[in-house]
């Protein structure tokens, strides 16, 4: 059964700015989808509509059988990681990762177990007591990913998560994301303008241009018929 259906999704910002035209996509359970295309083509807008951070102007978003258009972001089983990390600066790494679970009144022992498991997967166990400002860019991004995965979301959205990192770290984190993917049971939608990231991470790649889907295919299909 498809986890996520986007049916004729459209985003009109102002009268004349149509950021996304009739976006149609069925995403299978645990699939890794990459949205790729140049700046301004509508990738972020699409992701933000899925997260509920932006209203859908027209069309329907389903998770399973449930229509999500009017569901509050906090009630969607979705986590999102941004380019700029957006960690809480006054909290330690541990507190950052525990925060969402605490809000949901998860028992302390369970929070502790989940935070430590995620920290282990992301290799940040030794930084748990540090504040974000005492971490490097790569470490901060790991924490941001950790904070998202402790919630065990059904859908995991990533918006240019590696764009702020230097080339070496970007390659390393790309490999980490491939590993992460094997360890958590989640559907991924990953936004990037980087072709290499798209080709190495995606089960399927959605190429966008000027708010339209130009092509959808596996890396092999996209490589064979660019
Ligand atoms: P991408 O993520 O591919 O760079 P975006 O989804 O951010 O593209 O933007 C798609 C289009 O929508 C662009 O033309 C952008 O200028 C416009 N846009 C994005 N956010 C807003 C907004 N809040 N108000 C008006 N126009 C916007
Ligand atoms: P990178 O080369 O990856 O950008 P940095 O040069 O920022 O990393 O940091 C190198 C190491 O020093 C990292 O392990 C980081 O956690 C640690 N570090 C950086 N700043 C601080 C700090 N203010 N307090 C403690 N450790 C720090």
Percent strand? 25-35%
Counting H and I runs of at least 4 residues, what is the number of helices?
A: 7
Bound molecule types: adenosine-5'-diphosphate
- Percent helix: 25-40%
Radius of gyration: 17 Å
How would you characterize the overall build of this protein?
- This protein is of the alpha/beta class and 226 residues long.
- 35% of the residues lie in helices and 27% in strands.
- The chain has seven helices and ten strands.
- The strands form two sheets. Strands 6-7-8-3-9-10 form a six-stranded mixed beta sheet, sandwiched between helices. The chain has a four-stranded antiparallel beta sheet with strand order 2-1-4-5, covered by helices on one side.
- A hairpin with a 5-residue loop joins strand 1 and strand 2.
- Helix 2 packs across helix 3 (108-122), helix 2 packs parallel to helix 4 and helix 3 (108-122) crosses helix 4 (137-149).
- The radius of gyration is 17 Å and the shape is globular.
- It starts with a strand and ends with a helix.
- Residues 4-226 form the ABC transporter domain.
- This is sn-glycerol-3-phosphate ABC transporter ATP-binding protein UgpC.
- Keywords: ATP-binding, Nucleotide-binding, Transport.
- One of its GO terms (biological process) is carbohydrate transport.
């Amino acid at each position: 059964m498809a986890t996520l259906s986007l049916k004729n999704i459209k985003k009109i910002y102002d009268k004349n700015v149509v950021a996304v035209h009739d976006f149609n996509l069925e995403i299978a359970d645990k699939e890794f989808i990459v949205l790729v295309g140049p700046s301004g083509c509508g990738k972020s807008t699409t992701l933000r509509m899925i997260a509920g951070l932006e209203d859908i102007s027209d069309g329907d978003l389903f998770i399973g059988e449930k229509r999500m258009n009017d569901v509050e972001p906090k009630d969607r089983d979705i986590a999102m990681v941004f380019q700029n990390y957006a960690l809480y600066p006054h909290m330690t790494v541990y507190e950052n990762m525990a925060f969402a679970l605490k809000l949901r009144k998860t028992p302390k022992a369970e929070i502790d177990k989940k935070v430590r498991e995620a920290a282990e997967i992301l290799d940040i166990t030794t930084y748990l007591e540090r504040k974000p400002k005492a971490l490097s860019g790569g470490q901060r991004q790991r924490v941001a990913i950790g904070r998202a995965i402790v919630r065990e979301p059904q859908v995991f959205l990533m918006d240019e998560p590696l764009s702020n990192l230097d080339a070496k770290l970007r390659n390393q984190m790309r490999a980490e994301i491939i590993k992460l993917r094997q360890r958590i049971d989640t559907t991924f939608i990953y936004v990037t303008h980087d072709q290499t990231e798209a080709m190495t991470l995606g089960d399927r790649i959605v190429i966008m241009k000027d708010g339209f889907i130009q092509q959808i295919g596996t890396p092999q299909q996209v490589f064979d018929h660019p």
